[in-house]
């Protein structure tokens, strides 16, 4: 890691301190004492930060974060900026596992695919492709967070209603998602070649969404692996998925893909939230 120069490190420390207490205002003396800075050094730092708009001096001679930081924060959370962070992660996943990695959002009960990265072998997979998919339980589980009662209420929205035994299986699959940070689904028909795999895209009737465990030695007709990107605890901003599987995939391979995908989603989420969320 690059070593910060002393002046930069002190400025960062002041900003981190103010950011860590957004509902409080502090005097120069309080900031200097907490950060173990001399009053003169702290005064000069605060004066420079106030001048730049990164700190604000109130009428009560206390300091809070300044409006320039709010503008920086808003810009950093713009969808285009977030995708700039997500794209390299998606590219690495697509190339490592020879698949298509998609970023998708939940918009008005539809899954909207906003971005895709494809391995060289899947370049033609992107054109044409469906950009929106209507969401109804059990689709979109990655966006449902909270208690099992919340999940049960979401299952109630399914039309037609889900059978009790199927609901139990979906609860088990949701527990797997909560515990592991990713989920996966399988096809109910064999994946014999690329054309078969492409024809099965978005075919919910031929997809099993109830997978709740991975047997490393077993082979699966894998439909996708997916994970949520959280912007704060309990709130999924969007999801990333790996798809384009053209043949059976072993359980240990699915486990590796899930772990890599979850780690990528955690890094993107940390960027959005400004801190680690796990």
Automatic annotation (TrEMBL):
Domain IclR-ED as annotated: residue spans: 68-274
InterPro entries: GAF-like_dom_sf, HTH_MetabolicPath_Reg, Tscrpt_reg_IclR_C, Tscrpt_reg_IclR_N, WH-like_DNA-bd_sf, WH_DNA-bd_sf
PROSITE patterns recorded: HTH_ICLR (PS51077), ICLR_ED (PS51078)
Organism domain of life: Bacteria
Family matches, as SMART domains: HTH_ICLR (SM00346)
SUPFAM superfamilies noted in UniProt: GAF domain-like, Winged helix' DNA-binding domain
Residue span, HTH iclR-type domain: 5-67
Pfam short name (any one): HTH_IclR
Gene3D superfamilies: 3.30.450.40, Winged helix-like DNA-binding domain superfamily/Winged helix DNA-binding domain (1.10.10.10)
Swiss-Prot/TrEMBL keywords: DNA-binding, Transcription, Transcription regulation
GO biological process: negative regulation of DNA-templated transcription
GO MF assignments: DNA binding; DNA-binding transcription factor activity
PANTHER family named among the record's database cross-references: HELIX-TURN-HELIX TRANSCRIPTIONAL REGULATOR, ICLR FAMILY, HTH-TYPE TRANSCRIPTIONAL REGULATOR RV1719
Protein name stated in the entry: Helix-turn-helix domain-containing protein
Classification of source organism: Bacteria, Pseudomonadati, Pseudomonadota, Alphaproteobacteria, Sphingomonadales
């Amino acid at each position: 890691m690059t070593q910060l120069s002393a002046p930069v490190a002190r400025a960062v420390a002041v900003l981190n301190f103010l950011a860590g207490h957004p509902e409080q205002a502090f005097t120069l003396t309080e900031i200097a004492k907490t950060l173990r800075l001399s009053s003169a050094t702290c005064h000069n730092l605060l004066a420079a930060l106030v001048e730049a708009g990164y700190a604000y001096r109130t009428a009560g001679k206390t300091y809070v974060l300044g409006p320039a930081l709010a503008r920086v924060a808003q810009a950093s959370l713009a969808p285009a900026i977030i995708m700039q962070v997500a794209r390299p992660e998606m590219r690495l996943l697509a190339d490592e596992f020879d698949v298509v990695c998609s970023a998708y959002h939940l918009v008005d009960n539809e899954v909207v695919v906003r971005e895709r990265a494809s391995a060289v072998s899947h370049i033609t997979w992107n054109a044409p492709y469906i950009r929106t998919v209507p969401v109804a339980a059990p689709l979109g589980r990655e966006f449902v967070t909270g208690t099992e009662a919340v999940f049960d209420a979401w299952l109630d929205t399914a039309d037609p209603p889900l059978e009790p035994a199927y609901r139990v299986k979906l609860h088990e699959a949701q527990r797997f998602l909560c515990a592991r940070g990713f989920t996966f689904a399988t096809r109910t028909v064999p994946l014999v070649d690329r054309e078969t795999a492409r024809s099965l895209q978005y075919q919910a009737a031929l997809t099993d969404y109830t997978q709740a465990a991975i047997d490393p030695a077993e082979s699966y007709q894998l439909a996708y692996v997916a994970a949520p990107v959280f912007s704060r605890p309990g709130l999924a901003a969007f999801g990333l998925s790996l798809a384009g599987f053209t043949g059976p995939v072993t359980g240990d391979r699915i486990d590796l893909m899930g772990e890599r995908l979850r780690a990528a989603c955690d890094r993107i989420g940390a960027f959005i939230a400004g801190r680690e969320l796990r």
